[in-house]
Amino acid sequence: MDSKRVLAGGAVVVVVVALLAAVAVPEAVASPRDDRPVRPGPVNVVDADIATGEITGQTAELELFATLDHRGNPAENVTVLFKATDAESGLLEAEREVAVGDLTAEGERRVSTVLRVPREGGYRLEGIVYRNDTRVDRFTREVSGVEALTPAYARANVSFVEDPVLEPVSVAITDAGENRTTLELGGWLTATGPTEADSLSVTFILRQAESNVVAARTTVDAGSLREGRSETVSADVAVPSEYNYYVDAVLTRDGVIIDTAGGVVNLDPSETIDRNETRREVEFDASDFEGDDGERPDRPETTDAETAVSQPGFGPVVAIAALLGAGLLARRRR
Fold it and tell me: Transmembrane ranges (predicted)?
C-alpha cells in the first residue's frame, strides 16, 4: 500500500474524530483562554466641575461633577467617593459615596453629588473612583472664600453707590446751636434690578469718634427704586457740638442687612478725623450723650476757700500743737 495514501487516510480519520468530539463534547476542544478571568476595562476621570447650591447663613452646598471615561471590557461595581476637607485644619467636613453600577458600553458617564459644608474658609474637594472596591483613579479641586457666598435672603438689587467722586454718605449742617448741632444725613442708593416696594430702609448711626458711643440713631424708609436709577434718602439728627463722629449707614430689607456705607462729620474745631485713621486719646465726657435735652452739665465752680483747704500744708491747729510741744520740752530741760 502506498504510504502517502495511508497518511492521508489517517489524517482524515483524525479530522473526523475531532469533529465528532467537538459535537459530542464541546469542552474538549475549547480554547484554554476561555477559563481565564476577563480583565475589566479601565475607568478614568476625564473632567471635574464644581458649582454652588443652596447657601444659608451657616452652611453652603457644593455640587461636585465628575465625568468618567470607560473603555474596553465591562467594569463592574463602579463607585465614586466624594470628600470635602477643611483646607486649614485638614478635618473631614463632608463625604458621600455615589454608586455608578456596571459599565458595559464604552463612553463617558457623568456622576454628581452635593456636599454641605460650613460657610467659612476653604476646602479641598476630592473624588475617588473605585472598581470592585479597588481604587482606580481620583481627582482633587480646591475652593476658598466660601464665606463670601451670599445667602438668598441677603441678596438684593439695591446697594449704596460706588463712585470714585461721589461719597455714598453725605452730611450737611442745618442748625448749629451752642450745645447741639442738627445734621442732615443723606445716602445714595443705586438699583441694578427691580426692587420690592416698601421693603427697603436705611439706618443712620452716629458714633463719637474716640469713645465709639452712639450719639444718635435714626431709620428712614427707602421705599422702592426703579431699575437702573440712583436716588438719595435723607434724615435729620441732633448731636452734641464740638465732637467728631463716624457716620454708619446700614441698608436693610425686611430686617436683613444687605449693604453698608460710612462717612465722617467733624464738629471739633481743634482737630479732624478721617474714616480710616487711627483713633487718638482725647477728652471725652459721656454725660454729653445722656438724655434728650441736649444741655451740657455745668461743671461746679471751685471757691477760694475750698481751694485753700485742698492745698497741702500745715493748718492753725497743727501750729498751736507745735508751740505747746516746744514749751514742754523747754521746761524739762530746766
Answer: 313-330
Pairing status of strand 200-208 against strand 214-223 = antiparallel
Of the segments 140-154, 233-247, 296-310, 315-329, which one has the largest average pLDDT value? Answer: 233-247
Phi-psi label, residue 132: left if phi above 0, alpha if psi -120 to 50, beta otherwise: left
Greatest Cα pair distance, the chain, in angstroms, is: 182
Closest CA to 184 of 152, 218, 150: 218
Residue 248 C-alpha cell reads as 454708619
- Whether CATH 2.60.40.10 fits 43-148: yes
Residue given cell 461743671 in the structure block: 299
In whole angstroms, what is the distance from residue 157 CA to residue 42 CA?
49
70: amino acid identity, one letter: H
The domain 156-289 is placed in CATH, from the list 2.60.40.10, 2.160.20.10, 3.30.70.360, 3.90.1150.10, at 2.60.40.10
Give this prediction's pTM. Answer: 0.54
Residues 300-317 pLDDT 10s: 444 444 443 344 444 555
